[in-house]
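Example S7 (structure tokens).
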């Protein structure tokens, strides 16, 4: 289910269920998550500068029109 705005979430049928918890997008935030993100970013910058190759890479596929 997708909503145009976070304010639309009350329209969701999920809000009527007792076994569902709705959290804001910042629910991922924790000290451990921020630390891990900082370490991964630093490693990626270092590898990119020293080896010219990112730690995390993916292939971008061109869309045909």
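Recovered sequence:
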């Amino acid at each position: 289910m997708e909503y145009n705005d976070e304010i639309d979430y009350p329209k969701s049928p999920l809000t009527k269920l007792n076994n569902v918890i709705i959290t804001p997008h910042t629910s991922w935030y924790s000290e451990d998550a921020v630390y891990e993100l900082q370490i991964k970013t630093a490693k990626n910058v270092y590898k990119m500068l020293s080896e010219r190759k990112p730690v995390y890479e993916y292939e971008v596929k061109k869309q045909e029109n």
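Notes on this example. The radius of gyration is 19 Å.
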